[in-house]
Amino acid sequence: MSVLIIGASVAGVRTAQALRQRGYQERITLLGEERQQPYDKTALSKEVLAADLPGEPPVLLSKQQADELGIELVLGVRALGLDTSRRRVLTDAGEPLPFERLVIATGVTPRTLPGTRELAGVHTLRTADDALALRAELDRGPRVVVIGAGFIGAEFAAAARARGLEVCVVEAQPTPMAHLFGARVGRMLAGLHTVNGVTVEAGTGFARFADDGRGRVAGVVLADGRTSPAELVVVGIGARPATDWLESSGLDLRDGVECDAALRVAGAPGLHAAGDVARRYHPLYGKPLRIEHWTNAGEHADIVAADILGQPEPRTQVPYVWSDQYGRRIQIAGRPGEGRLAGLRGGVEDGELTAVYADEAGRAVGAVVVDDPRAFMSCRKAVTAGADAAGLGLDPVEAG
């Protein structure tokens, strides 16, 4: 029984590899809309933008590796529609692709703002082409405004600042990242920007782009009427699941493709979804979650491969994500937003930071650690085990 995988990033590539590693012998076709060999997107906001590095993202699956594994790579072809009854995928290449088993791994697409596409110098960052275009812009030494203080925006700001450029980060929330980590830790993480010479405009939203009269951006007009000048703007306000091609499929597409714990697509036998596009019922949290993490995509791949082969489901891991900013490494385990800040040690401005979050019973449900691998391993183990957060020996934080 053949497998067709739509999407050639981490989730799609790792699914194909996991199938072979688990002993699958039949045909695997991997379709990707970009023409490049599948590459690691985590490098786009880091190594690809660095002036002292070559500017090429690491390859996830070379042609030689694909040939050795017997994976048919179809690149530069975009999926346009899914016919579940006739079991075929419509593409811009003209000829529909039939399937017996289908894995949807199309990831996410960046959210944009009005005027993003009309002005030169306004960019989003999702593909290698995006990153290379931004690298060329950075080489010209522009003033930079980043809209959005999430990980993509923060990493781009750090890359621009590393080149000595003038950088401003605009964030609508009064405290960046507060919706994920709370106001106290959010302020600490925002401090990474300020101590590295980046201006942070928090608590004021985007109003519109200013142009120079010749079709190029000249700045960002803020909601309070001020203008932050810029020759380069990066919009990093999150992403939405790349499910437009599935609109007529009849699948449940509320915040991604709805799946059960084994990543089987709801109401569609023989279909799985994996990675950022999948809204999976998460066994550890007892509810559907869509998690945009590199490690989550790899975990999904192994779950899908095991299910296709009728093998036991791999053990579910607590979520894990990292971000590299200004030469610092931020690591997050679990889901801090599921609890409250219960323990804290250190601060990012003068060294290492460890923050642990606990539920009402005092069990660790999440942690944020900066530049302390040993502390992170302890926190990750505690979150995995649901251990008492107080046992980590951090300074207690009173509730409220």
> Can you identify the CATH class of the largest domain?
Alpha Beta
CATH topology group of the largest domain: FAD/NAD(P)-binding domain
Tell me the count of domains: 3
| Content-based structural category | alpha/beta
Shape: globular
Q: From the coordinates shown, what is the CATH architecture of the largest domain?
A: 3-Layer(bba) Sandwich
| CATH homology superfamily of the largest domain | FAD/NAD(P)-binding domain
Strand order of the largest sheet: 22-23-26-25-24-27
Mean pLDDT: 95
Gap between N and C termini:
56 Å
Query: How large is the share of residues in beta strands?
Result: 25-35%
Number of strands: 27
Helix content: 10-25%
In DSSP terms, counting alpha (H) and pi (I) runs of 4 or more, how many helices? Answer: 7
Q: Show unreliable segments.
A: none
Rg, rounded, reads 22 Å
**What characterizes the major β-sheet?**
6 strands, antiparallel
TL;DR of this structure?
The protein is 22% helix and 30% strand.
What would the keywords be for this entry?
Enolase-like, domain 1, five-stranded parallel β-sheet, alpha/beta, 3 domains, six-stranded antiparallel β-sheet, globular, FAD/NAD(P)-binding domain, 400 residues
